[in-house]
Amino acid sequence: MKYPVLTRYIRPFIGAREFLHDKVGEFSRYCFWFKDGNPSDYANIPEIKARLQKVKAIREQSNADRIQKMADYPYLFCQNRQPDSMYLVIPRVSSETRKYIPIGFISPDIIASDACIIIPDVSIYEFAVLTSSVHMAWVHIVAGRLKSDIRYSPAVYNNFVWPSPSDKQKAKIEATAQKILEARAKFPDSSLADLYAPLTMPEELLKAHRANDSAVCKAYG
């Protein structure tokens, strides 16, 4: 409110906790995103200058060479993984008690932390396979653990064996995936953690997942 010019630079920021526990369309954390910004908008704002000075100092004290180099750019994130289009989020850590890891599509204006595995340039077909019981079986064997919770990593995704569906099978899989998204949309006041709680997962959502499981399994033969 004090500096309206900053409105365009304030973005929602999600880690695994926010992705799972914030309600759809609501955000509990935000960040400044100055990439491709106009320095004249923020260079002379005292509160921003103070924050950037602290970032610079912390980076200069780091033992990592790549972070020290980023001390020259305190207005940027050290790592920029942010896609320019819709992307799929898989929380890096998810409760082992859930039947499925809650995953979903996120718009590019929402900034994802490294607590989220992000997959750009994927379609609803990839979403369907990754949210299926086949992929979950793979996850339970291959993924690491944080205490007893599932810890997803790029290696889990990169080594996963994908099916080779016919056009008809792929269309069926895409249709069942859409039903999952539609079932979620009927509960706008619930977070993904609410919807995927093992004891209270809505009947319509569970049925949509089971239909998707069946379609994906058939694609594997």
- Number of helical runs? 9
Query: How can the largest sheet be summarized?
Result: 3 strands, mixed
**Could you tell me the mean pLDDT?**
96
Strand percentage lies at 5-15%
Textual characterization of the structure:
With 221 residues, the protein is of the alpha+beta class. It has two domains: 69 residues, no CATH class; 133 residues, no CATH class. It is 40% helix and 14% strand. The strands form three sheets. A three-stranded mixed β-sheet has the order 2-1-6. Strands 5-3-7 form a three-stranded antiparallel β-sheet. The protein has a three-stranded antiparallel β-sheet with strand order 4-9-8. Helix 4 packs across helix 7 and helix 7 runs antiparallel to helix 9. The model has no long low-confidence stretch (mean pLDDT 96).
Summarize the structure.
This protein folds into two domains: 4-72, no CATH class; 87-219, no CATH class.
Question: Key features?
Answer:
single chain, 221 residues, alpha+beta, 2 domains, 3-stranded mixed beta sheet, 3-stranded antiparallel beta sheet, 9 helices, 40% helix
